[in-house]
Every structure is written in C-alpha cells, then in structure tokens.
Design brief:
Mean pLDDT: 75
Shape: elongated
Structural class: mainly alpha
Number of domains: 1
Strand content: under 5%
Number of helices: 4
Distance between the termini: 43 Å
Order of helices and strands: HHHH
C-alpha cells in the first residue's frame, strides 16, 4: 500500500528525477497485481506465513533481478514492464481458476 511510497521517496532514489505523479503511478502499477496474487495465495493456503514469505521473496527478487544501473525514466520503464508481467500472471491465475475463490464451492452439496 501507500507505506511503500516512503521507500521510493528517500534522497538516494530516482524520485528527484521523476515527477511526483509519474512516481506514484509507477509505484501503484505493480503493487495491486502483486497484492491480488498474495490474496489468491492466502485464499488457497490460509497461511500468513506463506504470504509473508511471498512478500519477502518479492523484496529479495527486486534486489536480484532489477538492474542496479537503471535510473530515471529507464527505471520507470523497467518497473512498468514488471507490472505488465504481474498483471499477466493475475490474468493467468484468474483464467486457470475460472475466477473462483478457494471457498466458492463451500456450502454447496454434491448430488
């Protein structure tokens, strides 16, 4: 959510080179799809530990796969591409599950 914004507003980040509106839009481009995926995993597992590990893996993977030399608009483009990959993953998961939650069939009797 919004608390992640502070991580991008520190002095040594690219926030000074990018207008505030673009900074906010690129931040929220990838947070919603990842949250949807985390909610899906929690819905299936009912495990806070698994979703916490999922969040930790996101943070760790950003340090591993994001090129350190990126700055300014190049970094924004990379993060928007990352957001596109996450939205694609949300689409695949939604298609795969038929858009149903893990608990959608509870309360229904099989005949």
């Amino acid at each position: 959510g919004a608390w992640h914004f502070l991580l991008f507003w520190e002095q040594d980040t690219f926030a000074g080179a990018v207008p505030l509106a673009l900074l906010v839009s690129r931040l929220f481009a990838w947070l919603p799809p990842y949250r949807v995926l985390m909610v899906h995993v929690f819905d299936r597992t009912q495990s806070g530990l698994v979703t916490a590990l999922m969040h930790a893996s996101l943070v760790a993977s950003q340090f591993i796969i994001m090129p350190a030399a990126l700055a300014g608009m190049d970094l924004v483009a990379w993060l928007l591409a990352w957001a596109g990959v996450l939205w694609l993953a949300v689409g695949v998961v939604t298609w795969w599950t038929g858009g149903r939650s893990a608990h959608a069939s509870e309360g229904k009797r099989s005949v």
